[in-house]
Amino acid sequence: VQLVESGGGLVQAGGSLRLSCAASGSIFVTNAMGWYRQAPGKERDFVAAVSSDGSTFYTDSVKGRFTISRDNAKNTLYLQMNSLEPEDTAMYYCAVSQAIATIGLPDYWGQGTQVTVSS
Fold first, then answer.
1. How far is the C-alpha of 88 from the C-alpha of 35, rounded, in Å?
2. What is the 3-state secondary structure (H, E, C) of 12-72?
3. pLDDT attached to residue 27
4. Is the dihedral of CA 20, 86, 11, 40 positive or negative?
5. Mean pLDDT of all residues in the chain?
6. Which of 26, 33, 95, 112 is most buried, with most CB under 10 Å away?
7. Residue 118: phi, psi to the nearest 5?
8. Of all helices (H) and strands (E), which one includes residue 78?
C-alpha cells in the first residue's frame, strides 16, 4: 500500500487549501481513511476521518472549516480546508485503517504534506 499526499503549501490566514491523498495497492472501499497532522515539537493528532459508508468524523477545532471526502473510484482521499488559521500549520498525513473503529491506530501512513498558514 502506498499513500501519496499533495496539495500542501503556504497560505494566508483565512485562505483555503485542498489536500489529496492518492492510494495504491490493496486499498478497499471497506477501509477507513483519515487525516492527521503534526506541528513542530508536538504529537501527531487526529484531524478527520471517513468510513467506508461515508460517515465523517472531525476533531473539534476543525469542525465547520474542514471537509473530508473520498472518491473510491479513484482511490483518493481529500481534505478541503477553509478559513485556515495559523494554528493549522503542520505536516498533514494521510492514513488508512481496516475500519473506522481502528482509525486511531492506522495500518498505513503517507509521507506527509506541509501546510503553513501565515498570520
1. 13
2. ECCCCEEEEEEEECCCCCCCEEEEEEECCCCCEEEEEEECCCCCEEECHHHCCCEEEEEEC
3. 74
4. negative
5. 95
6. 33
7. -95, 150
8. strand 76-81
